[in-house]
C-alpha cells in the first residue's frame, strides 16, 4: 500500500502537470489526475487502520476509492465529449447508499466480508460503465487498448472477489489478513494505477498529435485543407487519374468583392462569410471531393471522378448557395479545369483553372468559366 501510494502520488502529479500544459481543448486530464490523487490519498487511511477512527480508516477511505473511480469515469467522458446519461440525483443516491452500507457494516453490524463485497460491487458498476464508455467513444489507439486492458483486469478481480465471497472461499478477517485473494487485492493498485496513468497520458498525447497534424494541414478558420496540403492531395489525385484513367477536375473559386465586405462590415463579418461559404460549399460537394483554402478569399475544390460538365453543375450549386449566405449574401467567380491526358501535369491543370478564373472575373464576376 505504501508503494502504491507513492507511485500514485507521482502519477497524479504527472497528469496534473500535463493538464496544465496541454491545450485546453484536450479535456479530462484534470479529472484523471484528481482521480489518481484521491486514490493515493485514501491509502494512508487504510494503512492507519486501528490507529485513527474507523470513520476515517473505513468509511472515508473506501468512499475515496469509489470517488476516485468515478472521477476517472468523468474524466473519460470529458475527454470524449460524452454527456452522462445519469442525473446528479442518481449519482448522489449512489454515493449515499454506499456510505450508508459501509456505516451499517462498520458500526451497527460490523462485518469485514460485507464491506469488501460492497466495495467490490459498487466499484465494479463504475468500472463496467467506464469500460462501455471507452469501447463506444474512444478511437482505436494504443492508449485505448491499454486502458481497456486495465479496466478488464479490475473488472475480473472484482468479479473473482465477489464470487469468492459468495462461495465462502478465502473470507477476509481484516484489511491486512494474509489470504491469497486479499494480498492480490491489495497489491493490484501498485500495478494498475501506473498502467492506467500510462493509458491516460498516451490518450492525451495521441489526441495532441492528431490535433497538431490536423492544424498543420488545415486552415484554422474554415477547417479546409491549407495550400500545402491541397497541392499534396491534388498530386495524389493526378497520380490516381493517370494510373486508372479516371476523370478529374478542379475549381478555383474567388469570393467576389471580398475586400469591400471587410471594409464595409469589418473583418469579423468577413470571417463569418468565409466560414459560411466553406460550410455551404462542403455541403454541395461529395465525400470524395475536397475543399481547400489557397489563401485569403481564394479556394480550390478537388473533384475526383468528375468531368468538366459535372464540375460546372457543382459550380452552379455554389452560385445558388451564395444567394442565401449568412450573415451576408455572397457571390463567387469560378474557373474550372479538367485533367486531360497522361501528358497533363499539376502545373498545367492549375494554370488552366487560374486562367479560367481570371476570365470569369473579367467578364463581370459571379459566373463560371472553363478552360
Structure, described:
There is one protein chain. The model has no long low-confidence stretch (mean pLDDT 90). This protein has a five-stranded mixed beta sheet with strand order 2-3-1-4-5, sandwiched between helices. Helix 4 (88-108) runs antiparallel to helix 5 (112-137). With 371 residues, the protein is of the alpha+beta class. The chain has helices at residues 2-21, 29-47, 54-80, 88-108, 112-137, 142-167, 180-217, 227-244, 258-265, 267-284, 308-322, 346-362, and strands spanning 248-255, 290-295, 298-304, 332-338, 368-370. The protein has twelve helices and five strands. 68% of the residues lie in helices and 8% in strands. Helix 12 links the parallel strand 4 and strand 5 (368-370). It folds into two domains: 2-216; 227-370, 2-Layer Sandwich (Alpha-Beta Plaits).
SSE topology string? HHHHHHHHEHHEEHEHE
Tell me the total number of β-strands.
Answer: 5
Coarse morphology:
elongated
Counted up, domains total 2
Characterize the main sheet.
5 strands, mixed
Radius of gyration: 30 Å
Strand order of the largest sheet: 2-3-1-4-5
**Separate helix tally:** 12
Low-confidence parts lasting 5 or more residues at pLDDT below 50?
A: none
Structural class: alpha+beta
N- and C-termini, Cα separation:
75 Å
* Approximate strand percentage: 5-15%
- Mean pLDDT across all amino acids: 90
Amino acid at each position: 500500500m505504501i508503494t502504491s501510494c507513492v507511485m500514485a502520488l507521482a502519477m497524479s502529479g504527472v497528469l496534473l502537470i500535463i493538464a496544465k500544459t496541454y491545450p485546453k481543448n484536450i479535456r479530462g486530464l484534470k479529472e484523471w489526475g484528481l482521480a489518481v490523487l484521491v486514490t493515493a490519498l485514501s491509502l494512508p487511511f487504510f494503512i492507519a487502520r486501528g490507529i485513527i477512527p474507523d470513520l476515517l480508516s473505513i468509511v472515508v477511505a473506501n468512499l475515496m476509492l469509489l470517488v476516485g473511480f468515478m472521477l476517472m469515469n468523468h474524466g473519460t467522458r470529458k475527454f470524449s465529449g460524452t454527456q452522462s446519461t445519469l442525473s446528479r440525483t442518481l449519482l448522489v443516491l449512489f454515493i449515499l447508499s454506499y456510505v450508508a452500507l459501509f456505516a451499517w457494516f462498520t458500526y451497527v453490524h460490523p462485518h469485514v466480508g460485507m464491506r469488501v463485497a460492497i466495495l467490490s460491487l459498487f466499484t465494479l458498476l463504475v468500472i463496467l460503465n467506464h469500460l462501455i464508455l471507452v469501447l463506444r467513444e474512444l478511437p482505436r489507439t494504443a492508449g485505448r487498448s491499454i486502458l481497456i486492458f486495465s479496466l478488464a483486469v479490475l473488472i475480473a478481480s472484482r468479479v473473482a472477489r465477489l464470487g469468492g465471497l459468495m462461495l465462502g472461499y478465502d473470507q477476509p478477517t481484516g484489511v491486512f489478513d494474509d489470504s491469497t485473494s486479499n494480498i492480490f487485492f491489495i497489491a493490484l493498485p501498485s500495478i494498475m494505477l501506473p498502467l492506467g496513468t500510462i493509458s491516460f497520458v498516451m490518450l492525451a498525447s495521441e489526441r495532441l498529435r492528431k490535433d497538431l497534424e490536423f492544424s498543420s494541414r488545415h486552415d484554422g478558420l474554415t477547417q479546409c485543407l491549407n495550400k500545402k496540403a491541397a497541392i499534396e492531395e491534388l498530386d495524389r489525385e493526378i497520380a490516381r487519374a493517370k494510373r486508372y484513367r479516371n476523370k478529374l477536375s478542379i475549381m478555383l473559386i474567388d469570393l467576389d468583392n471580398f475586400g469591400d465586405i471587410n471594409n464595409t462590415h469589418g473583418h469579423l463579418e468577413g470571417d463569418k462569410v468565409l466560414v459560411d461559404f466553406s460550410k455551404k460549399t462542403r455541403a454541395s460537394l461529395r465525400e470524395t471531393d475536397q475543399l481547400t483554402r489557397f489563401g485569403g478569399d481564394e479556394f480550390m475544390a478537388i473533384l475526383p471522378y468528375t468531368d468538366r460538365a459535372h464540375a460546372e453543375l457543382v459550380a452552379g450549386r455554389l452560385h445558388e448557395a451564395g444567394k442565401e449566405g449568412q450573415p451576408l449574401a455572397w457571390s463567387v467567380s469560378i474557373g474550372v479545369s479538367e485533367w486531360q491526358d497522361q501528358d497533363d501535369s499539376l502545373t498545367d491543370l492549375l494554370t488552366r483553372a487560374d486562367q479560367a478564373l481570371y476570365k470569369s472575373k473579367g467578364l463581370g464576376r459571379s459566373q463560371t468559366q472553363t478552360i
